[in-house]
Known about the structure:
6-stranded mixed beta sheet, 21 strands, 2 domains
Amino acid sequence: xxxFKATIGGKPAHVGSDFAVxxxxxxxEVGRAPNMGGAELDAAVAVAKAAFATWSAQTDAALQAxxxxxxxxxxxxxxxxxxxxxxxxxxxLNGLGSRWEVGGAVAWAGYTTxxxxxxxxxxxxxxxRVELHRKPLGVIGSITxxxxxxxxxxxxxxxxxxxxxxxxxxxxxxxxLSTLRLVEIMNEVLPPGVVNVVTGDDKAFxxxxxxxxxxxxxxxxxxxxxxxxxxxxxxxxxxMKRLTLELGGNDAGIVLPDADPQAIAEGLxxxxxxxxxxxxxxxxxxxxxxxxxxxVCDALVAYAKNIPVGNGMEEASILGxxxxxxxxxxxxxxxxxAKGRGKVLLGGAPGEGLFFPPTIVAGLRNGDALVDExxxxxxxxxxxxxxxxxxxxxxxDSPNGLGGSVWSSDIAAAKAVASRLACGSVWxxxxxxxxxxxxxxxxxxxxxGVEFAEEGLAEYTDIQVVFA
Length: 468
């Protein structure tokens, strides 16, 4: 059984109680995490605030070197971190699973390390010189979800470090172990207090809520549900915190009538079912033109039938269980409702424990629960349409606007449709393919701000304009 201490000020933090972390594939306890409260949060913020004074004074080259050292440490411990992720999150080691997640974390850390925000000269003439400087904010509060516990922690922490900020990270109580170990590893090469971690089961004390109102945390970076994101935004208002909120998505894909069903089947599947559908930017609803609707359904079902589902520690598994009971129950409810409204083409029946097979349901429409609600699990509704204008309207008929995709043999036609989708990212003949050199964020209820690239890095800074 794994048991990690929280790291505060570069040292193990001792608390009087802990809580169990379960393997969603077996239901067995795989480890225990510290059950921390307000006193531990205050201590973590205090040491992070103290460390900021010297960390923020580092040269740009020194910050870059430190981030490079952190990246190397993550890569050195990649196999260990991947195993911890699989045990607590459920995703397989293999395929687009935990090894892939850690590899992505290393790639993002490395790319972020190479970014910089140099002084920008706005004016330099006889009237004077005007410069735009980027200044670190202070203590960054990071609140991460359970679907990609290491990769999203890296998305939050590395840009904070690169810009001279210090961090207190709070992982989901479902998946705290990999983050505890990640921060422990980081502290092997960072000064004490620069990155700290607090964990709790959120039952007796709401750590995330306390972070949102803490007067010494200057920014909250949150990845999670829209409902929780709204609460973070409300509670952060009193202290005028900076916010980056990457919230839920109900991403739509539109298949145009000239698409090749066989050619797009694999892309459609992984666009929807990557990480067992437990991905903010996964495709959650698919609109298919009437002329190729049945052929697309047939090709997608044929591909999905060959994907092995099982315990993530088994190399043959490509998809694992749903991570927790609450999410499993939501997917089960939505699929049960869809059965009475459409036709189940594949899956549809819950398995043992938290296993739920890849499920594809046709014959649904906007207004049905599985179409309107973000399922965040292995169930894809397919909606038939006859007019492209109708498909665009239906795709945009959502409070969310994280991602979208268009599938076609005609790239120009696909781009024309893509430009009319109300979402932060649009892909052509793929879905959810985010990358570290492209800003990523949502519109409408899917969040505020962006992550990745220079635009994401800048969100960890304040602007100071110097007139000389």
